[in-house]
Amino acid sequence: MDNKGNAYVTGFTDSVDFPTEEAFQPDNVNEDVFVTKLSRDGEELIYSTFLGGSEAEEGRAIAVDGKGNAYITGDTESTDNFPITKQAFQTENLGLADAFVAKLSPDGAELLYATFLGGSEDDAGEGIAVDGKGNAYIMDPDSSAQLR
């Protein structure tokens, strides 16, 4: 929830008719993450977008900073077309599945950053928190890592 009471939801879907609005990625490629922002009363879809590549992805956690930027973590099996930004911390998926961390603008139309986070085994971001400086803290079941 942001400081205006808007709700943010993430997960994953196979549906090609999942509702999108003001989307960074309007089309579901293959079991993609969805990120949705609803008005405080739940009556308006402010934005809803997909985030994914040609393989399966799961959105597992979401956090919002004071400016309304959404931070998403989960896992991806995509190696060549997951939307990683140019100056990413890690530009390659090193295992069958790697964790990812992404940041969307308050209107959901711009991917501010996205990176893989993982090694040669399977990795997944299970939780995420953001501090007052915009640092994202990611948790996976076996360890924790900080990404700034």
The average pLDDT score comes to 92
The share of residues in helices is under 10%
Count of the separate structural domains: 1
How many helices? The count is: 0
Work out the oligomeric state of the chains in this entry: single chain
Poorly predicted parts = 144-148
Taken from the alpha-carbon principal axes, the silhouette is globular
Estimate the strand proportion: 35-45%
Radius of gyration: 14 Å
Amino- and carboxy-terminal Cα gap: 21 Å
Strand order of the largest sheet: 4-5-6-7
Sheet/helix structural class: mainly beta
| Sheet with the most strands, sense and barrel status | 4 strands, antiparallel
Q: What's the total number of strands?
A: 10
- H/E element sequence: EEEEEEEEEE
Walk me through this protein's architecture:
By secondary structure, the chain is an all-beta fold. It has one domain (7-147). Helix content is 0%, strand content 42%. The chain contains no helices and ten strands. It has strands at residues 7-13, 32-38, 45-51, 57-64, 70-76, 98-104, 111-117, 127-130, 136-139, 144-147. The radius of gyration is 14 Å and the shape is globular. Residues 144-148 have low confidence and may be disordered.
Provide a short characterization of the protein structure.
By secondary structure, this protein is mainly beta. The protein is built from no helices and ten strands. The chain is globular.
Main attributes of the structure:
148 residues, mainly beta, 3-stranded antiparallel beta sheet, globular, disordered C terminus
